[in-house]
Specification:
Distance between the termini: 75 Å
Number of helices: 14
Largest sheet: 4 strands, antiparallel
Number of domains: 4
Structural class: alpha+beta
Radius of gyration: 31 Å
Order of helices and strands: EEHEEHHHEHHHEEEEEHHHHEHHEEH
Strand content: 15-25%
Shape: flat
Strand order of the largest sheet: 2-1-3-4
Number of strands: 13
């Protein structure tokens, strides 16, 4: 399910759900939303979710991102008849809240569905089987004179029926589940590896594979990794290439995960920004970045070049300057030029300076550059005097 998420005016991300835990947390970091209060604003893409009603994709929602992920997981696992029933409920209840829609993915077998393309066909079935109380005492001659279309519309109105893909769905029979959905928070880890034993013919035993989260306490880990192989891996660092993780021994990767666990969350996000800036894709280079994090300046609150330019001017203009004058000015080119001078960039996580640079320090003319400019100015004056 393709979803567009946003946080404020400038930050928006379009992603495919469901996601794994690391992808969710990375999205929260990009949207600058804390993991302990992961409420996101989102809309469902109308072009990538054609099976859902058009009106649903034109609405804006707000929900816990973990509930959104559960919703996508449940939609993905619905069979054809369940999806038909779900769509009929959405059509019959177009103003449903997101919580209501999540509940609608349960107990869909209470919606009666049968093949039927129109009110006329529905009316024929209703008349033939005398499915309305008024028809039970009518003779066959009277029944033959009835308007099938009108009978079908009356039946549809009474049952709150919906036609979906050649099927008629009786939505009035739906029973809202009396359940409470508790979305727990996953454990704090940095890598997940699906480990499988190796058979005698050196083929992984996928049926016996199990997930291992890193870091783990090696003393408590009752598993011999010598005769096992990793068949799938998930990483909290998007820039870390999967093949690099595969090359690392699990104990070395566990030590790396322990090092990451010692970082504050802000430093962890800063690390991801530095890796994006420096185009880092290997664990060894990542370790080098961790050791040099203090040499970079990071501002998570800045999302684009114009916003950076505005913040830069606000910190360098006189203190009595009216900063409200900058609010509606497009400073994209200015901000981009300042960042370029500082070897920095706007990353997916915020503004990051180049190594050894300060984001908001004033750019001044260097002595050598100033001397060159003065010499050029004197030369131009002398030449000007000769020409006069």
């Amino acid at each position: 399910m393709k979803v567009s998420l946003k946080n404020g005016k400038f930050i928006s991300v379009s992603k495919e759900f469901p996601m794994n835990i690391f992808e969710i947390r990375d999205i929260l970091d990009r949207l600058k939303i804390p993991d302990d209060k992961p409420i996101v604003q989102f809309s469902i893409s109308e072009y990538d979710n054609m099976e859902l009603p058009y009106t649903l994709c034109r609405r804006d929602f707000s929900a816990d991102i973990y509930q959104l992920n559960l919703f996508a997981e449940r939609l993905e696992n619905l069979n054809n008849s369940e999806m038909t029933a779900f769509r009929s409920l959405l059509i019959a209840n177009p103003e449903s809240s997101f919580e209501d829609m999540l509940m609608m993915t349960y107990w869909l077998d209470s919606v009666m569905i049968y093949p039927c393309e129109s009110c006329c066909k529905l009316g024929e079935t209703v008349i033939k089987n005398k499915m309305m109380p008024e028809l039970k005492k009518c003779s066959d001659e009277i029944l033959a004179l009835l308007d099938c279309e009108k009978v079908g519309r009356l039946m549809q109105k009474r049952e709150i029926g919906v036609f979906v893909d050649g099927h008629y769905c009786v939505t009035s029979g739906y029973e809202k589940p009396d359940i409470s959905i508790d979305i727990g928070r996953p454990e704090n880890c940095f890598f997940r590896l699906l480990i499988a034993p190796i058979k005698a013919n050196n083929v992984p035993d996928y049926g016996s594979a199990q997930w291992v989260t890193l870091p783990f306490d090696e003393e408590d880990m009752d598993m011999n990794f010598d005769r096992m192989t990793c068949v799938k891996r998930e990483s909290s660092l998007p820039e870390l290439l999967q093949n690099q993780m595969q090359q690392e021994k699990i104990h070395e990767l566990n030590d790396f995960a322990k090092l990451l666990s010692e970082l504050s969350h802000n430093d962890f996000v800063k690390l991801k920004a530095v890796m994006e800036l420096e185009n880092v894709h290997k664990i060894l280079d990542t370790l080098d970045c961790i050791g040099r994090l203090d040499e970079y300046e990071f501002d998570r609150l800045v999302s684009n070049e114009s916003e950076f330019g505005r913040t830069y001017l606000a910190q360098n203009l006189p203190t009595n300057f009216n900063n409200s004058m900058l609010e509606n000015i497009d400073l994209c080119d200015f901000g981009r030029e300042i960042l370029c001078r500082k070897q920095g960039k706007i990353t997916s996580y915020g503004a990051i300076s180049g190594r050894g640079q300060e984001l908001y320090s004033a750019l001044t003319v260097q002595p050598e550059q100033q001397l060159e400019e003065e010499l050029e100015e004197d030369f131009e004056l002398e030449m000007g005097g000769l020409s006069l």
